[in-house]
User: What shape does this take?
Amino acid sequence: MAQAMSRSMLIAAVLAVLSIALAGCGDDDVFRTDRPIVRLTVDEYRIVPQNVVVKPGRLKVAVRNAGRLTHNLAIQIAEGPDGKPVDVPGGRVGTMQPGATGEPIKVTLAPGSYRLVCTIANHDDLGQYGELEVQE
Assistant: This one.
């Protein structure tokens, strides 16, 4: 009887810990930072973290290619004057070979939503995109 009670208490404790851990997971796919630098990793066909929230102003973005294919990264305004995405001035990391780290870029961003995307071939169609949200 004591063993059954101990087992019940253990299960209850594990469930309590899991519920607390899961309660904090609602926003776990969003990376938030107040720091003026963001480090991203690209591979087939992802940008990690995929959703980033930063403060407005100057931002340095460092990107590493952890994949087996070449990749790049562009920060884009979702809709330019012609309705198509447009690169933010200075917001592109050049093509990186597998295992390479791109030259960090520095951009100044106003509040709003921006796209993070690999512009090589159809990588964005395969899921290699994300969102950069600039919030006060």
In short: The first helix runs from residue 2 to 23. The chain has one domain: 29-134. The radius of gyration is 20 Å. Residues 36 and 59 are 5 Å apart (CA to CA).
